[in-house]
Every structure is written in structure tokens, then in C-alpha cells.
């Protein structure tokens, strides 16, 4: 297919940010939006020049003139909508965190693989030009063997139990909203860990407020990760190797600049800004993969998504946080 027609499921804050970046992606055309409020869907469609507005998620899943769905609802709603979309043969870009639970993620991945339908987690970090260059430097051996990763991502949000971020039933909490970035970054460089240790605190709603994670590997590699809705952090990452390290300057989950420190050499600053806001690169990856008939992205494969979801769930459970999928979102 020369042109890939996109539909948006959930016209919230993240979807608003993503829409402008479609202009940077040849072959991608957003055509429809769905909300459980038809008025909200119509307002979003009018704002962004979309052809159709649907008043239910089921309706956009059944829309024959949509090739790919961008799923941007709260985390617990991803599972049910994704399964319905896969059954309808729709390719998917699913916002992070992929689902609310590991079991839900596994079910979506199994359905996608069985049905031969393209599905990818919307981890935009992996597609930022500066992060692409970081991965190239690591693969070239620029800092030797990677032995440790540090990353932090925290914000200071006033507690509001009515806000999605603090509502457990809507997948609220630091881990699923911000922790997914630090965990995915470490997993990208070190693979799935052998051990997960987490400390943190929770809000009265039961959602996690903050978490510090120590990930361990049997060969001694490690990752120290911090995430929080309770206090701000720089949003920086460092990748340590046997022959140097790389600083990923704030905010690391969509950086413009990395600094390479080779042992015995002067630091090398590398600046590679993204196109648009930065979502364009993941949109381009999905568009290309669907055009070429791929079932998964080599940059953000489903195995990595499952590994990250596993770490997030282990950490949440250690804090006493237990998320659930929403089975009623299509009803």
C-alpha cells in the first residue's frame, strides 16, 4: 500500500501532541478518530481535519477505511481494544505502557503473532535520531562492553485523586506512565534482567507515587532506575561501558544531544534533533513496516515489550500495586 490510513483511538493529551507529526511522515494519512463521547470525537476531528468521527471504539475497529489504529486510551483499555483490532486485521501502534498487566500484554502479543497482524509499542525514545546514534556507537564498541545503565524520569504533580495519573483503575501511577521509559531504556541496552528489586511509595488511591529499581543480571551487569510523580528529576541517562560512557542529556526519553566519553579522549558532543516534536519517527516506522508487510518492528520488537512489562509488573507488585485490564471498554 502506498498510503497508510490511520485512525486515532482516544483523543486525549498524548494524541493531541502526536497529530502534528503526521505532516513529517510521507505515506501516512490520519483519517478517523474514536472516543466514547461523540462530541469529543467530532471536536478532535474538526481540529485536525479528519474525515470521520466515531462515538465508540468498536465503530473505528469496524471502519473498513482505516489500516492502522493509534491506541492512546488509558493503559487498562489497551488490551480489549487491541484484541478487537487484531481480530479485525487492523495494524496497531499501542501507547506505552503497552497494557496494564503482563498477562494482558502476552495475550495481545499472542493474538498478533497468530493473526499475522503488525503491532508495536509506541516507545518513541528508541526512534529518536540521538538514541539511534547511541545504539550505533554501542554496537561499534565505542565504549566497550556495556555494564551498567542509570536513568531517571520524575515530575512533581500535585496529588489529585480525580486525575487519571492517580487513579489505579485507570492505570495511574509513576511506573506505567514514566517508569516504562527508564525500564525500556535499560532493557534496550542490557536485555531482560534476571532480578528486579523495587522500593517506593503509594498514594491513598493505591497508585504508586515513586519507585527506585535495581535491575540485576547474573553476570554482574546492573541498572539503577528512578521514576516519580512526587518529585522532579533531571531526566538524564548514562550508559557505562568498559572503555567509556555516554551521557544522554535531558530529557533522555526524547533527547537531542548525547555526549560520548571514550577513555583517554576528549568528550564528543553529538546533536541530532528529531523531526517535528519527535513522534514522527515511530509513525514512520509503523507506516514503513505496514507498507512492506512486516509483522513486527526490529527496533521495538514485541519480545522487548513483554520483557519491559514483566519488569514493571514485578516492581509494582513489590510496592503492593496490582493493576487490572478493563474488559468493558468496547461495551
UniProtKB/TrEMBL annotation:
<feature type="domain" description="GFO/IDH/MocA-like oxidoreductase">
    <location>
        <begin position="132"/>
        <end position="246"/>
    </location>
</feature>
<dbReference type="Pfam" id="PF22725">
    <property type="entry name" value="GFO_IDH_MocA_C3"/>
</dbReference>
<dbReference type="Pfam" id="PF01408">
    <property type="entry name" value="GFO_IDH_MocA"/>
</dbReference>
<feature type="domain" description="Gfo/Idh/MocA-like oxidoreductase N-terminal">
    <location>
        <begin position="4"/>
        <end position="121"/>
    </location>
</feature>
<dbReference type="GO" id="GO:0000166">
    <property type="term" value="F:nucleotide binding"/>
</dbReference>
<dbReference type="InterPro" id="IPR000683">
    <property type="entry name" value="Gfo/Idh/MocA-like_OxRdtase_N"/>
</dbReference>
<comment type="similarity">
    <text>Belongs to the Gfo/Idh/MocA family.</text>
</comment>
<protein>
    <submittedName>
        <fullName>Predicted dehydrogenase</fullName>
    </submittedName>
</protein>
<dbReference type="GO" id="GO:0016491">
    <property type="term" value="F:oxidoreductase activity"/>
</dbReference>
<dbReference type="InterPro" id="IPR050984">
    <property type="entry name" value="Gfo/Idh/MocA_domain"/>
</dbReference>
<dbReference type="InterPro" id="IPR036291">
    <property type="entry name" value="NAD(P)-bd_dom_sf"/>
</dbReference>
<dbReference type="InterPro" id="IPR055170">
    <property type="entry name" value="GFO_IDH_MocA-like_dom"/>
</dbReference>
<keyword id="KW-0560">Oxidoreductase</keyword>
Amino acid at each position: 500500500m502506498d498510503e497508510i490510513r490511520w485512525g486515532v483511538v482516544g483523543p486525549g493529551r498524548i494524541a493531541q501532541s502526536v497529530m502534528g507529526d503526521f505532516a513529517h511522515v510521507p505515506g501516512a494519512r490520519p483519517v478517523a478518530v474514536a472516543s466514547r463521547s461523540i462530541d469529543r470525537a467530532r471536536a478532535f476531528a474538526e481540529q485536525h481535519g479528519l474525515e470521520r468521527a466515531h462515538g465508540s471504539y468498536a465503530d473505528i475497529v469496524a471502519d473498513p477505511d482505516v489500516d492502522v489504529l493509534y491506541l492512546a486510551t488509558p493503559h487498562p483499555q489497551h488490551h480489549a481494544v487491541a484484541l478487537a483490532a487484531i481480530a479485525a486485521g487492523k495494524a496497531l501502534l499501542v501507547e506505552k505502557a503497552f497494557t496494564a498487566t503482563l498477562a494482558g500484554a502476552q495475550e495481545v502479543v499472542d493474538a498478533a503473532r497468530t493473526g499475522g497482524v503488525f503491532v508495536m509499542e509506541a516507545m518513541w525514545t528508541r526512534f529518536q535520531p540521538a538514541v539511534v546514534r547511541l545504539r550505533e556507537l554501542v554496537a561499534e564498541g565505542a565504549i566497550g562492553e556495556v555494564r551498567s545503565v542509570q536513568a531517571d524520569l520524575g515530575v512533581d504533580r500535585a496529588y489529585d485523586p480525580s486525575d487519571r495519573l492517580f487513579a489505579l483503575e485507570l492505570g495511574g501511577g509513576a511506573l506505567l506512565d514514566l517508569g516504562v521509559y527508564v525500564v525500556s531504556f535499560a532493557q534496550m541496552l542490557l536485555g531482560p534482567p534476571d532480578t528486579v528489586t523495587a522500593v517506593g511509595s503509594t498514594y491513598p488511591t493505591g497508585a504508586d507515587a515513586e519507585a527506585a529499581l535495581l535491575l540485576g543480571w547474573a553476570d554482574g551487569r546492573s541498572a539503577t532506575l528512578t521514576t516519580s510523580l512526587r518529585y522532579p528529576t533531571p531526566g538524564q541517562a548514562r550508559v557505562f561501558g568498559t572503555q567509556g560512557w555516554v551521557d544522554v542529556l535531558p530529557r533522555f526519553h526524547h533527547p537531542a544531544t548525547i555526549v560520548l566519553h571514550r577513555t583517554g579522549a576528549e568528550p564528543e558532543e553529538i546533536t541530532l534533533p528529531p523531526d517535528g516534536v519527535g513522534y514522527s519517527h515511530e509513525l514512520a516506522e509503523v507506516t514503513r513496516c505496514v507498507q512492506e508487510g512486516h509483522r513486527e518492528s526490529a527496533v521495538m520488537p514485541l519480545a522487548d515489550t513483554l520483557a519491559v512489562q514483566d519488569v514493571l509488573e514485578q516492581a509494582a507488585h513489590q510496592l503492593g500495586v496490582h493493576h487490572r485490564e478493563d474488559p468493558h471498554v468496547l461495551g
